[in-house]
Amino acid sequence: MHELSIALGIVNIAENETKKANAKKVEKIELEIGTLAGIAFDSLDFIWPSAVKNTVLEGAIKRIHIIEGEAKCGDCHHIFKLKKMYDSCPKCNSYLKGIIKGKELRIKYLEVS
Ligand SMILES: [Zn+2]
């Protein structure tokens, strides 16, 4: 499952950061995930407990900040909310666009103890 490898990647980073800080475990982790990052939030929540079991992240509070997709039209320069990657510009119908937000997948905050 795609989300499992993402969760394990997060675990990996958290393990490294915790080690660097000479800490034992993570108290709190905040993630920033864009709606265009291709991640199913439900699946991520579902596999999270088993992915973090016996790691520094076990028992940590997890919070996900969802970042709505946003794009700028390449033709009329209109900035619009992008729900799906292949949506066209609502103003001029152009498919030429630059993604401004929504592809994020990062750890925003990590609190260790
Ligand atoms: Zn446009």
Order of helices and strands: HEHEEEEE
Q: How many helices does DSSP assign?
A: 2
Main sheet: strands, sense, barrel: 3 strands, mixed
Q: Given the helix and strand composition, which structural class is it?
A: alpha+beta
Average pLDDT, rounded to a whole number, is 96
**Span from first to last CA?**
31 Å
Rg, alpha carbons: 17 Å
Range of strand content: 25-35%
Low-pLDDT stretches? none
Form type: elongated
Strand order across the largest sheet = 2-1-6
Q: Considering DSSP H and I runs of 4 or more, what fraction of the residues is helical?
A: 25-40%
According to DSSP, the number of beta strands is: 6
Bound ligands, each once: zinc ion
Characterization of the model:
The mean pLDDT is 96. Strands 2-1-6 form a 3-stranded mixed sheet, covered by helices on one side. A 3-stranded antiparallel sheet has the order 4-3-5, with no helix packed on it. A hairpin with a 5-residue loop joins strand 3 (70-73) and strand 4. The chain is built from 2 helices and 6 strands; from the N terminus they run αβαβββββ. It has helices at 2-20, 41-52, and strands at residues 26-34, 61-67, 70-73, 79-81, 97-101, 105-112. The longest helix is centred in the N-terminal third of the chain and has 19 residues, at 2-20. It is 27% helix and 32% strand. The chain is elongated, with a radius of gyration of 17 Å. The protein is of the alpha+beta class and 113 residues long. Bound molecules: zinc ion. Zinc ion binds at residues 73, 75-76, 78, 89, 91-92, 94.
